[in-house]
Amino acid sequence: MASGKFITFEGIDGAGKSTHIAFVADLLRTRGLTVVTTREPGGTELGESLRSMVLHQKMHLETEALLMFAGRREHLAQVIEPALARGDWVISDRFTDATFAYQGGGRHLSLDKLDALEQWVHPHLQPDLTLLFDVPLEVARARLDAERTLDKFEQEKADFFAATRAEYLRRAKQFPQRFRVIDSTRPIIDIQQEIAQLLADV
Ligand SMILES: Nc1ncnc2c1ncn2[C@@H]1O[C@H](COP(=O)(O)OP(=O)(O)O)[C@@H](O)[C@H]1O
Ligand SMILES: Cc1cn([C@H]2C[C@H](O)[C@@H](COP(=O)(O)OP(=O)(O)O)O2)c(=O)[nH]c1=O
C-alpha cells in the first residue's frame, strides 16, 4: 500500500489557510488518494472541548501551551497516526509549528520548553509538507475585520502577530526540507496554481 503523507497548513490568523484546505483535499482525491482533513486545536471530541477553552478563556501561558500539546496527543492517537497507518493522507489546519509561533514567538514561552513537549508528544513524527501562508499583518487584519467575531488570539495586538509571523518564518528557514512559504497576498487562483505545482512533487 502507498504510504500516506502528513500535510500541515500554517500562518497567522487571516493569512488564508482555511480558504485552501478544501482545494488541496479535492486535488489529492482526484489522484485517487484517501484524504482526512482535520484541525488544531481540535480534531477529536476532547480536542474540540479544549479548543473552546483555549480560544475563549484567560489562562497561564504554560497552561495554554500544555493544553495545545494535550489536545495534540489525543489528535495523534485518535486521528493522525491511525490515518497514516492506513495509508491515508492527512491535512491538518495547524500543528506543532503553531505552538512554536504563537506560544513561543507571540507570547515568548521558552522554545526549550516547547522542544521538550514536542519530544514527549511526537518524538518521531513530523509533517511531510508544511505550507506556510505568509502575509503582512495589515493584510491579515483587514481580512479578519471584514469577516468575523474575533477570538482570544485574533484580538491580540500587532506586535504579537509580528512575533508570531517572525517565528513561523524562522522555522521555515530552520526546516527548509518540509516548509514551503506561500506569498498569500496574491489572488486565490494564483495561490492555488502554486499549491498544485508543489503537490505534484510530494
Ligand atoms: N488570497 C486571498 N486574497 C483575498 N482574500 C483572501 C485570500 N485568501 C483568503 N482570503 C479571505 O480572507 C479571509 C480569511 O481567510 P481564511 O482562509 O479564513 O484565513 P485563516 O484560515 O488563515 O485564518 C476570508 O474572508 C478569505 O475569503
Ligand atoms: C494549534 C494552535 C493554535 N493556536 C491559535 C492560533 C489561532 O489564533 C487559534 C485558532 O486557530 P484557527 O483554527 O486557525 O482559527 P480560525 O478557525 O479562527 O481560523 O489558535 C495557538 O495559539 N497555538 C497552537 O498550538
Give an account of the 3D structure.
The chain is an alpha/beta fold. The protein has one domain: 3-Layer(aba) Sandwich (Rossmann fold), CATH 3.40.50. Helices cover 57% and strands 13% of the residues. It is built from eight helices and five strands; from the N terminus they run βαβααβααβααβα. It has helices at 17-30, 45-56, 61-86, 96-106, 111-121, 137-147, 158-174, 188-200, and strands at residues 6-10, 35-39, 89-93, 129-134, 179-183. Strands 2-3-1-4-5 form a five-stranded parallel sheet, sandwiched between helices. Helix 1 (17-30) crosses helix 8 (188-200), helix 2 (45-56) runs antiparallel to helix 3 and helix 4 crosses helix 7 (158-174). The chain starts with 5 loop residues before the first strand and ends with a helix. The mean pLDDT is 95. Adenosine-5'-diphosphate is lined by residues 11, 13-19, 133, 143, 147, 184, 187-188, 191. It comes from Herbaspirillum rhizosphaerae. Belongs to the thymidylate kinase family. It is an enzyme of class 2 (transferase).
- What's the CATH architecture? 3-Layer(aba) Sandwich
- Poorly predicted sequence stretches spanning 5 or more consecutive residues: none
Q: What characterizes the major β-sheet?
A: 5 strands, parallel
Number of strands: 5
- Number of discrete helical segments: 8
Fraction in beta strands: 5-15%
End-to-end separation: 16 Å
Shape verdict = globular
Radius of gyration: 16 Å
Number of domains: 1
| CATH hierarchy class name | Alpha Beta
Order of helices and strands: EHEHHEHHEHHEH
Structural class: alpha/beta
State the helicity in percent bands.
55-70%
